[in-house]
């Protein structure tokens, strides 16, 4: 029982300090994404790597949290200019600096890696986690990683638990777990689509 990551009758998603479903998106303001809630939701996601249960995922988690810190440092330094992620980026780039913006680029890649892996795994009940994460890594982070970093992340892919051992840690009721994960992943995917389109614009590069 001790290794279960959820409350009685609930799911792992219930334990998150902030869910991606709770991140405000202002559709009337060019899909502006609230900075504080987004960063809290991204931090919450990293607890999933603890559930995966291998120290091999420590570098993956550390990488994400490091990028969250870069963005939050900018938010704390210029709060009036950083209420949403898009304004944070535009205002940082005006200062000829790009620490937080680069952090957001890498954070989005890490979130997309996780989102694609879990979405693929949920959609294919016979696929093991290691295959889903390896496929997602190849399509997201791997093309941007150096030859020194790739083996570290590859080790994490190989250290994924068996599918049956992972999902039982997320909740007793498999249907409830799947429903909660799908809603969480759908919200995350929507945020990723918005941010990738924004960061891909020429004026938001450095």
UniProtKB/TrEMBL annotation:
Classification via InterPro entries: GLTP_sf, Glycolipid_transfer_prot_dom
**GO function terms (MF aspect):** ceramide 1-phosphate binding; ceramide 1-phosphate transfer activity
- UniProt superkingdom: Eukaryota
Q: Which SUPFAM superfamilies match?
A: Glycolipid transfer protein, GLTP (SSF110004)
Q: Where is the Glycolipid transfer protein domain?
A: 33-171
Q: Does the keyword Transport apply?
A: yes
The name this protein goes by in its record: Glycolipid transfer protein
Annotated source species: Venustampulla echinocandica
């Amino acid at each position: 029982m001790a290794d279960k990551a959820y409350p009685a009758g609930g799911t792992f998603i219930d334990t998150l300090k902030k869910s991606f479903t709770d991140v405000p998106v202002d559709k009337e303001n060019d899909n502006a994404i609230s900075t504080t809630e987004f960063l809290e939701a991204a931090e919450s996601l990293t607890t999933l790597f603890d559930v995966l249960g291998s120290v091999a995922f420590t570098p993956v988690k550390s990488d994400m949290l490091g990028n969250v810190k870069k963005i939050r440092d900018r938010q704390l330094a210029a709060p009036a200019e950083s209420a949403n992620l898009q304004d944070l980026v535009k205002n940082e780039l005006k200062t000829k600096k790009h620490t937080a913006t680069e952090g957001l680029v890498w954070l989005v890649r890490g979130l997309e890696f996780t989102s694609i892996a879990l979405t693929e795994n949920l959609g294919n009940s016979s696929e093991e986690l290691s295959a889903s994460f390896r496929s997602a890594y190849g399509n997201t982070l791997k093309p941007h990683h150096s030859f020194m970093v790739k083996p570290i992340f590859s080790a994490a892919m190989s250290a994924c638990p068996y599918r049956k051992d992972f999902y039982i840690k997320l909740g007793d009721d498999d249907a409830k777990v799947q429903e909660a994960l799908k809603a969480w992943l759908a919200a995350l995917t929507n945020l990723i689509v918005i941010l990738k389109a924004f960061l891909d614009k020429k004026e938001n590069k450095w």
